[in-house]
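Quick look at the format.
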Amino acid sequence: MNRMSVVWVRGELVQVSRGKGALVFMTLRDTKDDASFSVSMRASAFAKLDLEPQQGSEVVVQCKPTFWSRRGSLQLDAYDIRAVGIGDLLQRLERLKRTLFNEGLFNADRKRPLPFLPRTIGLICGRKSAAERDVIVNAEKRWPAVRFATREVAVQGVKAVAEVSEALRELDARGDVDVIIISRGGGSLEDLLPFSDESLVRLAAAARTPIVSAIGHEVDTPLLDLVADYRASTPTDAAKTVVPDIVVERTQLDEARRRAYSALTSRIDREKEALAAVRARPAFAEPHTMIESHAEVIDGAIASARASVTIALERARERVKALADQARALSPLHTLERGYAVVQGTDGSALTHPSEAPEGARLSIRLAGGRVSATSLGEE
């Protein structure tokens, strides 16, 4: 047995144990017969494999059998491990997953928030499926007025990708659909494979409408889950995610109303207290008292002003009289009133010497009471 050359052994990995040592230990089971082998591989070689062996993977192992006579057991010393069947499928999915990840399609900052209360929910599901019933029933329990635009499609098999994609395009183009749920129940890896199809995954990533993925059970993770805006563990979880609970919302609304009423009542009470404090001030409580005190001041000011004006007028009157008397004393008319006269020639000039009035000259004599005309008889 120990002289056997390197062989390829095909089987299913049922256990993979990676310790801190230099070896990785695995158990390889024959998928047809009830037999299994222990497999060991150097950790350095294991790390360089093109795939990451996982439990459930069907693989072919390049190895050299070693028989331990003391324990009576056969062990396979592995040099290479390659995927076949489901293992090869998982390997392809892992490569696609890495590609989409590197493109940023799984980034959290790409994911859009779900609407609080969608007008219409788009639902893509299997025909007459339990997933459809779970979503609709649970959503209507939470919000009875909820509306659905349901598209029943093939959710496994060769038509699944095309029908799901067409339904997604149609619902995404509708203006009244605010969120889209893509849902189906659990199944095998092959059953869920359409929801890891690259074209469908990229279509979902490019959709303008937020998408909720509810595919399989919680342990299932198709690639659609990773690009969706929200990944629901089950169809029921999807229903609870996309619509609020009307009972909870009513309770919260009642509580908000109560808090608002309490806050408003407290504000009104505070304003009433402030108004009462203002009204208690003397200016508002007994306004006539302040008016009366000011009225006395005003009356005194008026009396004082009147006295001042009277005195000022009397003084002005006396001043005017004195100025009038002074002007009268200096006025030529005052002199005329004492019996004097002013003799003027024909040119209106006052005469001051007899020579200015020769015999026969026409004269105008101004008296206090008027004028008289005269003719000069010459100098005496």
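Next, a different chain entirely:
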Amino acid sequence: MRHVYQEGGVPVWVDLHNPTDAEIAQACSDCKLSIPTREELDEIENSSRMRADGETLTLSLPITPYHPDKPPLSTPIGFVLTPRILATVRYDELHTFHKVATDIERDKNIYSSSQIFAMLVESLVEYAADKLEHLQGDTRAISKTIFHRDQAVRKDVQKKSAMLRDVLIKLGDMGERLSELRETLLTLQRVLPFVVDRGQAWIGADVATRLRTTVGDIQSLNDFETHLTDKVQFLLDATLGFINNQQNDMFRVLTIASVVGIPPVFVAGLYGMNFQNQPEYHWAFGYEWGWAMIIISAIVPIAWFKWRGWW
């Protein structure tokens, strides 16, 4: 539990990180607030994510912290905002919260609860923008991998197959991260106008302006996220198309091999019937004749496929 104090020792922000039931109960008693539980924060209805009780605003939004060695997992953040104090509840480590707390403790200015809320929201939006920029770099790298492969990979079927499978996994992970970011941004886009509307009497004109500006930033990030989602879908379609072409090439080789192999098998079967009155058995060059027929019967279909451009 972290406390940020105003001048005179009055707490203005209480940050609960992965709190126990006892810590939540203590914070509710100390701050005279009703702090939501994890189950309440996980609810997805708008009425559950945005509630107003007089001058007390209870908000929740999902966010997906980035862990390089873990799959993306959404976790809720709860805000209880009043004119005198801000309480936050979170169940994962978020560097944005630590950064804001450090900036406030280092600064000599006195911050209100609404100003701290605006700083947290702006930090979360910056975090989302950074993640989108990172994902944009990933899409460029994958696009280069798919469409500008070196000759060694193009000619090596095994390497090409492994590369395409790896790309599919990366695209799936990117699509999941984009979906989580979109959920966070859309929730923020609904929450901030609610705060400006319900708290207009006490949040202050400067905070209201900052929140409206942040809503505009979120809209631009939503548009950018849509662009990235479309790009990921395009890359996914292209990857699946390459895989499909590779499979078609394999089936084409098998088809050609089976067609080319039919005439030689027929010739070999014909002269292998071992009938008594087959004149070729008594020729001096019967063996050579049989081999010549087998080879010619294989070359003719190959030449036909080459002439038609099928191989």
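Residues 205-270 form the longest helix (66 residues).

See the schema section for token definitions.
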